[in-house]
Amino acid sequence: MYIYDLSVAMAKQELPLDDSLVNAIKEAIEISNRSFSAVRYGRRLKYIGKIDDYHLHIRMESKEYVNASRSLSGLARALVKNEQSKNSTLLEKYIYNSSVFNTHPISVLEDAVSHISDCQMMQELISMVFNQATMNNRDKKLSREYTEKIRKIVIEYINQKTYTK
User: In angstroms, how far is CA 99 from the centroid of its own chain?
Assistant: First the structure.
């Protein structure tokens, strides 16, 4: 799994993004995620938030490596088509040279784990707690740090379960 965090501006970058445009983009993300291409190639977009008045943070997950800057064409098509179906003129001032978006990668996580089974989770937890003697210093420190975080969550769970009746 590849996870791309993208900074997305409109092609005409000097114009701030208003709320109606952001809402239209969120709606287009949902449409794009249901497209044949997105389902077939295992790609999913998610709106994270505004970076500033001109840029959005959009995350793309893909089963395979893609050129993230060029892979928002499905979103652009969904946005334009959806706005056209509403007879909206919202996009007219944002499109430049027939381009909708200007995209730059913020970060890329290659082969990131996005899901594990309950069994895999338990195996990893057991390893974190009981196999620290065989870990290098970096992994040992990481293991201790996350074991403490998990301990706090379990304590919170026990307290909620015990005292919320």
Answer: 23
Assign 156 to helix, strand or coil. Answer: helix
Structure tokens at 80: 């334009």
Distance CA 132, CA 9 (A): 45
pLDDT value of residue 108: 77
Domain count, the chain: 2
Is 39 found in the same domain as 71? yes
The predicted-structure confidence for 125-140, as pLDDT tens digits, reads as follows 888 888 888 878 888 8
Query: What is the Cα–Cα distance from 40 to 26, expressed in whole angstroms?
Result: 21
Same domain, 97 and 45: yes
Q: Which amino acid is at 135?
A: M
41 and 97 in a single domain? The answer is yes
The string of DSSP letters for 82-100 reads HHHHTT--TTTTT-BTTB-
The token pair at 124 is 């990893």
The SS3 call for residue 108 is strand
Give this prediction's pTM.
0.65
Residues 150, 46, 74, CA angle at the centre, nearest 5°? 150
Please check whether residues 27 and 63 belong to one and the same domain.
Answer: yes
